[in-house]
Amino acid sequence: MKSNLFCTLALGAFLVCVIYTLWLSVVYYSSVRKLQELQFQYIGIEQTQAALNALLNEAVEYGKKHQAIEPILQKFVKSAPGTNAPPQPPAKPAAK
Question: Of 26, 36, 58, 84, which is the most exposed, with the fewest CB atoms less than 10 Å away?
């Protein structure tokens, strides 16, 4: 009888380990898939950011030759070419 009880307990522990391992495998697999999706999104964002930076640099270069675009560039570039005005101090909050 003792031998039979020990085998049953050992088999039960083994079964619990197998189920836990399967659960961890599923969690790992889903995590890796999510990581791959995020990596693809990150690559896309980096490419978009590089394209926008190139476009902005081209616009700044264009603005050096054509001053009419300067007001538009001031919204997107901290120091647009040709702007020698001192920086504005931050506005004071309204008193209550």
Answer: 84
Q: CA-to-CA distance for 70 and 52, rounded, in angstroms?
A: 18
Measured distance CA(64)–CA(88) in Å, rounded: 23
- Distance, in Å, from the CA atom of 4 to the CA atom of 7, rounded to the nearest integer, reads 5
User: Are 41 and 24 contacting, i.e. CB atoms less than 8 angstroms apart?
Assistant: no
How do residues 31-45 score in pLDDT, each as one tens digit? 999 999 999 999 999
* Rounded CA separation 9/22 (Å): 20
In the chain, where are the structural domains located?
2-75
pTM: 0.55
